[in-house]
Amino acid sequence: MKTENQKAWFFVLPVLLLVAFNALVPIMTVVNYSVQETFGNNVFFWQGLDWFEQILRSDRFQAALGRQFLFTFLILIIEVPLGIIIALSMPRNGFWVPVCLVTMALPMLIPWNVVGAMWNIFTLPDIGLLGYLMNHTLGIPYDMTQNPFAAWVTIITMDVWHWTSLVVLLSYAGLVSIPDAYYQAAKIDGASAWKVFRFIQLPKLKTVLTIAILLRFMDSFNIYTEPFVLTGGGPGNSTTLLSIDLVKIALGQFDLGPAAAMSLIYFAITLLVSWLFYTLMTKDDAQ
């Protein structure tokens, strides 16, 4: 009987230790703060689950959570179909393939804080190119610093510009992996472009779309830097997403207990919804 070589674990051990240090230790620290109260000097008082109850019943938390879900919902219904459409229109061979791929990848290479700063300058009502064009050239009132609707349109547009490329690249990779025999059979049967997409391309894209939706959900649901740099959560609290509100509680008010409880609830919601997405999208495959 062949014996297993257990020495391979020595190669995995450094990774496990790194994950434990970067993930488990911080999480346990947050758990510790979430059930205690402190007034400094490293003195703690047992609080139990009071912070969790306070956060879940808070109107502030529920409003921020609602804005976060709305933002993520709008991002998904815009970026996923748009990414598929762009991927379908890209060439499959020739000189323009690398040009299109590099062009699509460029927005994702820009750091998040730079994206927020760029769009902040770009959309300022008086000196920004877009703001000046909307207000003075087209005559359309636009001021993201005063109008909540304009602020929402701006952060949605910014995210679509920044991250639709991810869906495009994943969808394009799925499309080019489809064998030509499928298209030849569809052509012989006289299938329309819609039927080719519905019965050939879309089923073959299911795996990559599952990855794209999960990645975009997790990233958009935990987004912080871009909207914070762009609007700071304003005007008022109209664009104060859950992540921004969490930072305000933790660093602005220095309420470590409620912030820790809120971050764990935030983490649990992200895991739960991601699991639901994955379960629903892979249900047919499991059957």
From TrEMBL:
Protein name, per record: ABC transporter permease
Q: Which UniProt keywords apply?
A: Membrane, Transmembrane, Transmembrane helix, Transport
PANTHER family referenced in this protein's UniProt entry, alphabetically: GLUCOSE IMPORT SYSTEM PERMEASE PROTEIN GLCT, TREHALOSE TRANSPORT SYSTEM PERMEASE PROTEIN SUGA
Tell me the domain of life: Bacteria
Tell me the protein family, please. Answer: Belongs to the binding-protein-dependent transport system permease family.
Q: Which InterPro entries match?
A: MetI-like, MetI-like_sf, Sugar_ABC_transporter
Task: Note whether Transmembrane helix occurs among the keywords.
Answer: yes
Membrane topology per the entry is: Multi-pass membrane protein
Membrane-spanning parts: 9-31, 69-88, 95-122, 149-175, 196-218, 260-281
A GO cellular component annotated for this chain's UniProt record is: plasma membrane
Q: Where in the cell is it found?
A: Cell membrane
GO biological process entries: transmembrane transport
